[in-house]
Amino acid sequence: MNFYRNIFFIYFLLVLMATGSVSAADDAEQLIKTEEEELPLNNPFDGTTGSNATSQSTSGTTGEELENPMSLYNFKLVGVIAGKKNSYASLVSQDGRNIILQLDEELYDGFKLVDLRLNEAVFKKADDTFVSINFKNQIREIK
Q1: Residue 125: inside a domain
Q2: Domain contains 32
Q3: For the segment 85-115, what is each residue's pLDDT rounded down to a tens digit?
Q4: Half-sphere exposure in the Cβ direction for 141 (13 Å, CA)
Q5: Do residues 88 and 27 both lie within one domain?
Q6: Which residue among 17, 19, 27, 58 sits deepest, i.e. has the most Cβ atoms within 10 Å of its Cβ?
Q7: 8 A C-beta contact, residue 90 and residue 135
């Protein structure tokens, strides 16, 4: 009696193992057959919408400033590093270039980094007006 029970138990285990491997193989086939989902053009987890130049209010800016590839409107502030001797601001352009500016260094002629705060960087224009950019990519003129 024990002999038949052992054989039945072994047969039962073999059947279970065989159906388990078939279902795993079927799952693998289904994964291979599924097509990749296309990614959206913009990152849904990014807090901003669109490009920097279009998402900012550009009142008081000249057309040539917006067309300048080194314009602040083409960059995002991604980091501020302040130390006792030196302070730096890290900017990333729309095409992924990273620029690190030291305090009193120019982004382009007549546009100099003059102050770093905890959440923003302040630049001085050639006409002695000030422009700030924060981590939310909001660019505003300071008088």
Answers
A1: yes
A2: yes
A3: 899 999 998 888 899 999 999 988 888 999 9
A4: 12
A5: no
A6: 58
A7: no
Domain assignment present for 43: no
* Domain ranges, residue 74: 52-142
What is the domain count for the chain? 2
Q: Are 56 and 49 in contact (CB under 8 A)?
A: no
Other beta carbons within 10 Å of 88: 17
Angle ∠(29,34,39) on CA atoms, nearest 5: 150
How many angstroms separate the CA atoms of 141 and 143, rounded?
A: 7
Name which residue leads in pLDDT, 112 or 41: 112
Tokens of residue 25, six digits: 């193989």
Q: Could you tell me if 125 and 136 are in contact, meaning their C-beta atoms sit under 8 angstroms apart?
A: no
112 and 88 in a common domain: yes
Taking Cα atoms as reference points, which of 66, 75, 70 lies closest to residue 96? 75
Report the candidate in 96, 62, 77 with the shortest Cα–Cα distance to residue 138. 77
